[in-house]
Specification:
Elements lengths: L7 H8 L5 E3 L9 H10 L48 E11 L9 E11 L13 H14 L8 E11 L5 E12 L21 H14 L23 E3 L4 H10 L8 H8 L7 E2 L6 E2 L8 H6 L9 H16 L4 E9 L9 E10 L4 E10 L4 E10 L6
Antiparallel strand pairs: 1-3, 2-5, 2-9, 3-4, 4-5, 6-10, 7-8, 9-12, 10-11, 11-12
Length: about 400
């Protein structure tokens, strides 16, 4: 397969950035009702709270992601060059993310964010100081990366980044995100022989399509909305009303890219300005010689092959946003999502459909509730697991 290999030199180079804070690439200069609306639409979430004008309008919780990610824009005059974060030419698979939410984001907010690399971990060769976070979270990330990796025996190095966001005017904390990505070798294995080689595009019967569409028809009625869901109303074992997402298509991905930023959403001269500065990130479609960049792994057959996948796959921010949608529909407008952890166990391929499910797992102090989350394919294969912590209002006497 591919000639490029992960090396110790790459890992050592990436570790030089450990613990060093740098400004994050924010996507918006100022949050508006429109930026919030586009993000909610990208997730297929029609909760009026994300759309209604007035002081009550807030952003879906994972909108926080947009404070840390923006297209890699370089004007023609820029002299900037890059080495791919220490892993030139390597591919990346998403293992999971851990959100912490301090307050909602509202129209008019101006955000400031910073990023810090907190881990560069080769699970087969640990060294002192390779990870600056809790070991239990690292174990979850390693387990997810191994499960998701298209080559069951393939090497990988976890690159873990922590992002923190504050209000640019007041310094008030807004939230944080820890991203866990596994760097893997390009074309690590023939997709047909890899872990996901048995995938074929999902063909639905008309009855199955009617089941999906019928579920969409009933979902909004289960949304809690302005009626408070109080801690006293909740019992351990209670199941959240299921949401369906999909079938995943190129249109699904396009909607997500409109509402949320991605590093490589570029075109024309701006795309050239990137590809000429990051040549190790660029591949060529063998049939057309047109440049293709990492983001295109989600739909372009050649880039999917570079990732050793048999087809295009979903976006990490998309999947996590779906599970947040499940929780916010259930908790209602008076609830507060304070934490969200999601781990990836399998790619979701184009044409597949996902079921979002949750179960109340624990009643915590201070009116908080822990919900266990699960994302499965239409046919029941596990895609993701996770947990959410929700603060619910107490019943007043």
């Amino acid at each position: 397969m591919g000639d490029l290999k992960l090396t110790r030199d790459m890992t050592d180079e990436a570790r030089r950035g450990l613990g060093k804070e740098r400004p994050a690439r924010k996507h918006w200069n100022e949050i508006t009702a429109d930026t919030i609306r586009y993000f909610a639409m990208a997730l297929g979430d029609d909760n009026p709270r994300w759309y209604s004008p007035g002081h009550s309008l807030v952003a879906p919780p994972t909108f926080l992601w947009t404070a840390f990610m923006s297209p890699m824009f370089f004007p023609s005059e820029s002299p900037v060059r890059s080495r791919g974060g220490g892993f030139p030419g390597m591919q990346a698979i998403f293992a999971g993310a851990r959100f912490r939410f301090d307050r909602p984001i509202r129209p008019g907010d101006r955000l400031r964010a910073a990023s810090t690399r907190i881990g560069v971990v080769d699970p087969t060769r640990r060294v002192d100081g390779d990870y600056l976070g809790p070991e239990d979270a690292l174990r979850s990330a390693v387990t997810a990366a191994r499960a998701y990796h298209p080559d069951p025996d393939g090497p990988f190095v976890l690159q873990i980044e922590e992002h923190r966001c504050v209000d640019a005017d007041t310094g008030e904390p807004v939230g944080s995100l820890i991203e866990n990505a596994a760097r893997i070798e390009p074309e690590a294995i023939d997709p047909a022989k890899g872990r996901w080689g048995g995938f074929t595009p999902r063909r639905y019967t008309l009855e199955e399509i009617e089941r999906i569409e019928g579920h969409y028809l009933t979902e909004a009625a289960n949304r809690r909305g302005p009626i408070p869901r109080r801690r006293a109303d909740v019992t351990v074992g209670e199941r959240l009303p299921t949401l369906v997402k999909g079938p995943l298509t190129l249109l699904s991905l396009t909607a997500m890219f409109i509402g949320a930023p991605a590093f490589f959403n570029l075109t024309d001269r701006v795309l050239y300005n990137f590809t000429s500065r990051f040549p190790e990130s660029v591949k060529r479609d063998p049939e057309t010689n047109i440049a293709v960049v990492p983001e295109e792994m989600h739909w372009h057959p050649h880039m999917a092959t570079q990732l050793s996948m048999p087809a295009g796959i979903d976006l990490g921010s998309q999947r996590i946003g779906w599970l947040a949608h499940l929780v916010t529909d259930w908790m209602g407008d008076h609830g507060e999502l304070t934490a969200l952890d999601v781990w990836f166990h399998r790619p979701m391929f184009l044409t597949e459909t996902a079921w979002c499910n949750g179960t109340v797992a624990e009643l915590l102090p201070d009116g908080q509730v822990r919900v266990d989350l699960e994302l499965t394919t239409f046919d029941g294969e596990l895609l993701s697991t996770g947990s959410a912590t929700v603060r619910l209002p107490r019943r007043t006497s």
